[in-house]
Amino acid sequence: MKFIEEVVVEEFVPTFRTMLAGELRERGRTQSEVAELLGISQSAVSKYAHGEVETNEQVAGDEAVRELVERLGEGLANGDVSRAQALVEAEVLVRQLERGGVLARVHESAYPPIADYDGPIDIHDPEGEFRMTERVRSSVRRGVRALENTSGFAAHIPAVGSNLVEALPDATTIDGVAGVPGRILDIKGRATVPGEPEFGVSEHVASLLLAARAAGSEARAALNVRYDPETLEALEAAGYAAVAFDAEADVEAAVAEAVGENPTADALYQTGGFGVEPICYILGPDAPAVVEAVRHVTE
Question: Which parts of the sequence belong to the HTH cro/C1-type domain (predicted)?
């Protein structure tokens, strides 16, 4: 595990100080003056000046870094910028570079697992998309593990396979819904999961969840299981509200109609049609909650 703060300390700080010390020296400041302006020792300034401190080429070559070094060097040298202001300006730049800038890229190189995320990362934002996507992936992982350990679940997997999905809070397309790549299949009586959760890999179950949400459902997760009267009875006996929709109609429109009349429904089901397998879709606030509902069916 590599924290971005480590990247700042190990890569940005020595590079930025080296560049700023050099800029101040070029503007006629003495070694002792540079040390006072930067709040470091003269021996440290000497090391910066003689190239004894390792720097990061990516950081040194970044345009925003170079521009700030030049601006602060000029301001500190002529007294237009205070040491406190220089620190604030540098801190602001650090936060900007952590959000999709050079520090984010250096962090990805230092810690490859975060490179899988497609988009700018604000590592410090508690409500940021990066944190939320990882939370959703984690939720689906927990749900999948629970499914694998749910006795009898394999018998409830439909012929087309099951999928467990969970949507980001503001998801409007399947790219905002995480699920199992491929499908969960019954192989020799065991629920078999083909891979780790990903976004945008479930077209059918994700689309149904999105249609339900668009019609007023607050559910963020869904799982499809084989439909039969016993499944419905078990769900209703456990207190879940199930609503039927027309399997042969346009799915989005049929789900919108069913959910529009029953926005708090916990399950949607269709009893089949020409070439259409009967399936029940269990809805819930997150993936583990949906799996908990399935356990009522498998008991």
Answer: 26-48
CATH code for the part of the protein at 129-298: 3.40.225.10
Two tokens, residue 229: 């009267």
Q: pLDDT tens across 77-112, in order?
A: 999 988 999 999 999 999 999 888 899 889 888 888
Going by C-beta distance under 8 Å and a sequence separation of 6 or more, which residues neighbour residue 36? none
Question: Which pLDDT tens digit goes with each residue over 128-187?
Answer: 677 788 889 999 999 999 999 899 999 999 999 999 999 999 999 999 999 999 999 999
Beta strands in 136-290 (DSSP E): 164-167, 177-179, 185-187, 190-192, 198-199, 221-226, 242-244, 267-270, 279-284
CA distances from 173 to 118, 274, 282, 288 (A): 16, 28, 19, 22
